[in-house]
Amino acid sequence: MVNLYNGKHDKGITAKEASNHWYLSLDSTYPNGDKRVRSTRLMRSARLIEMNEEATPKEIDRYKFIYLGYGVFGSKGFLDEVELIIRQIKRNQ
Predict the structure, then answer these.
(1) Dihedral-angle region of residue 46 (phi above 0 means left; psi in -120 to 50 means alpha; beta otherwise)
(2) Residue 69, SS3?
(3) Are strands 2-4 and 65-71 parallel, antiparallel or unpaired?
(4) Where does 30-92 have alpha helices with state H?
(5) What are phi and psi of 74, to 5 degrees?
(6) Cα atoms in the 13 Å half-sphere on the side-chain side of 9
(7) CB within 8 A of 16, min separation 6: which ones?
(8) Per-residue pLDDT at 4 exceeds 70
(9) pLDDT bracket for residue 19 (50, 70, 90)
(10) What is the pTM of this model?
(11) In terms of Cα–Cα distance, which of 85, 76, 81 is closest to 25?
(12) Which of 68, 79, 89, 93 is 20 to 30 Å from 17 at the Cα level?
């Protein structure tokens, strides 16, 4: 599990924002209409999902979620970490 929240770099971040959970959906689907989904970002080969709470085991299986960690999108190194995980997944396929 990766902590994407670093209080040293992100002074304006609230505890609520730091509790956002990030997932990578390998088949580009997500629980559409679910109020727990804060945002989605389409990437080259997957979809990045931001949720208020952790996904349930059923959601993880259904949407092929990979848990990335928690924190905020603008955190230092966040996108680098996501790209690294995507590269590792592609290597293992």
Answers:
(1) beta
(2) strand
(3) parallel
(4) 57-63, 78-92
(5) -80, 5
(6) 13
(7) none
(8) no
(9) confident
(10) 0.70
(11) 85
(12) 89
Q: Which amino acid is at 13?
A: I
Residue 42 bridge partners (DSSP): 47
Torsions phi, psi for 21 (to 5 deg): -105, 135
Residue 7 has a pLDDT of 47
User: Which runs of consecutive H residues, i.e. helices, occur in the chain?
Assistant: 15-18, 57-63, 78-92
User: Contact, 18 vs 5, CB < 8 A?
Assistant: yes
Beta bridge partners of 40: 49
| Res 89 pLDDT > 50 | yes
Hey, where are the domains in the chain? 2-92
Which residue in the block uniquely carries the two structure tokens 């509790």?
19
Residue 6 in this model has a pLDDT that exceeds 60: no
Can you tell me whether residue 32 is helix, strand or coil? coil
